[in-house]
Amino acid sequence: MRPPVAELHVHLEGTLEPAFIIETAGKHGIGLPWRSLEHLEAQYEFSDLQSFLDLLYVNLEVLRDEEDFEAVTRRYLVRASAAGVRHAEIFFDVQAHTRRGIPAETVIRGIRRALDRSVADHGISTKLIMSFWRDLPAADAMDALAHVLDAGLPIDGIGLDSAEVGYPPSLFVDVYRTARDAGLHVVAHAGEEGPAEYVWEALDLLHVERVDHGIRSLEDPELVERLVRDRVPLTVCPLSNVRLRTVDTMAEHPLPRMLELGLLVSLNSDDPAYFGGYLDANVDAVVAEFGLDAGTVEQLARNSVDSAFLDSSERARLHAEIDAWRRDRSG
Ligand code: HPA
Ligand SMILES: [Zn+2]
Question: Has the keyword Metal-binding been applied to this entry (predicted)?
Answer without folding.
Answer: yes
